[in-house]
Design a protein that fits this description.
The chain folds into three domains: 141 residues, no CATH class; 165 residues, 2-Layer Sandwich (Nucleotidyltransferase, domain 5), CATH 3.30.420.10; 73 residues, no CATH class. The chain is elongated, with a radius of gyration of 27 Å. The relative contact order is 0.15. By secondary structure, the protein is of the alpha/beta class. The longest helix has 19 residues. Helix 1 packs across helix 13 and helix 5 crosses helix 6. It has a five-stranded mixed β-sheet with strand order 7-6-5-8-9, sandwiched between helices. A two-stranded antiparallel sheet has the order 1-2. The protein has a two-stranded antiparallel sheet with strand order 3-4.
Length: 388
């Protein structure tokens, strides 16, 4: 509380918009100056931890720490011991994710689709060693993008879903658009990208078709609908597997050299098809992919010059390494997606502690010192569970 003294000697006490912790003999961690009692860290009303501690915890889980580890750090920093005398758990940080993470995730959401969008997914499995059984826990859809004439891409969003059905990809696209609309204050659908680059997985292709009417027709890639291009690295990988089944493993074999340029021009693909005629395994591969490859090599020069989804696969692998060891613990879809949003902030290198603290501070000021109470964002309803 502060004391206001009037000219006539009258006085009254009041609290600032944002209360502060009392500082006893504290020193500022940034400038090493002593801090007076009334200059302690900022709080929001009804919260027992100051905003910088919450920002630190959200940054930590975005970097791969578990909720329990981040909560233990916050309690130790606040002088309450690692777990405050209670059983170790991550409830404190889980609830911060519910009510505070939307501010940090929304501040860096994309506001439009880039020229090229790359999409892929990965499944997380729970295994029961004793019973010898396993089941899918959930899937994560990852969306990556390249701006016009750019060779450096950026992660656009991560979305946890029950399974990788075609509808799941549409939900992921809509989720990224909704975050961007909230950030910009706009409504309505975005202009679709010029090209969608995928590994050719059927559910993904159906999801793109259902959401954007993406395909390989003459109208696709011209502004009306995205062109659905298959990653050239995956096409080549599958062709190499077909060659291996045909007994061709020598890298100096002439057909191997033809394969190196098969996806770059119509002439290259024609040469590969001709060489594959006498190999049944390779002929089946050509028959299965001929329509797709023939169309995309004919339009390769006119489409955006992005040909591989390898960059996105690298990102997905990092995400998997961070959360695979605790797959069984993710049961709340909304909270899991917010956590993935914090991980995305880390991937695009905007997860700075001072920046996070300032975002929370401004939100608290705008709300008159009272942001949403921690327990109100908590949900355990089955509809929120990402597991099928």
């Amino acid at each position: 509380m502060f004391k206001c003294l009037g000219p006539d000697g009258s006085s009254h006490r009041f609290a600032g918009t944002l209360p502060r912790l009392i500082a006893d003999g504290e020193v500022c961690q940034h400038c090493d100056n002593e801090v007076h009692r009334h200059q302690g860290p900022l709080l929001t009303r009804d919260y027992g931890f100051h905003l910088r501690l919450a920002a630190r915890a959200l940054l930590d889980v975005g970097n791969g720490l578990t909720y329990t580890e981040a909560a233990a750090r916050a309690r130790a920093t606040a002088g309450r011991g690692p777990y405050g005398g209670v059983q170790p758990n991550g409830t404190l940080v889980a609830e911060w994710i519910d009510v505070l993470a939307p501010l940090l995730v929304g501040a860096h959401a994309e506001r439009s689709w880039p020229e090229t969008v790359v999409v892929d997914s990965t499944n997380f499995i729970i295994s029961n060693v004793r019973m010898g059984t396993s089941r899918q826990a959930f899937a994560i859809v990852a969306i990556y993008g390249y701006a016009q004439q750019s060779t450096r891409g950026q992660l656009l969003g991560l979305y946890a879903t029950h399974e990788h059905f075609a509808e799941s990809y549409g939900e992921a696209f809509a989720y990224v658009e909704a975050l961007g609309n909230q950030r910009s204050g706009a409504t309505g659908a975005w202009t679709p990208p010029t090209m969608m680059l995928t590994d050719g997985e059927w559910a993904l292709l159906n999801g793109m078709t259902g959401y954007w009417n993406a395909g390989t027709g003459p109208d696709c890639g011209t502004g009306k609908a995205p062109y659905a291009k298959c990653c050239e690295w995956h096409l080549r990988k599958n062709a190499k597997l077909a060659l291996k089944k045909a007994g061709i493993t020598n890298l100096d074999d002439p057909i191997q050299l033809i394969l190196d340029t098969a996806f770059q021009s119509p002439a290259g693909w024609d040469a590969f098809c001709l060489a594959a005629q006498d190999l049944p395994q390779l002929a089946r591969y050509v028959k299965r992919n001929d329509a797709q490859v023939r169309d995309q090599v004919a339009r390769r020069a006119a489409l955006p010059q992005h040909h591989s989804s390898a960059a996105l696969e690298t990102v997905l692998e990092r995400v998997r390494q961070q959360i695979e060891r605790r797959t069984f613990a993710f049961r709340n879809q909304r909270r899991t997606n917010l956590l993935l949003g914090l991980m995305r902030n880390h991937e695009i290198r905007v997860d700075d502690l001072d920046h996070y603290t300032e975002l929370l501070r401004e939100a608290a000021r705008a709300a008159g010192g009272r942001i949403q109470y921690q327990r109100r964002g908590y949900c355990t309803d089955r509809a929120f569970d990402p597991r099928p």
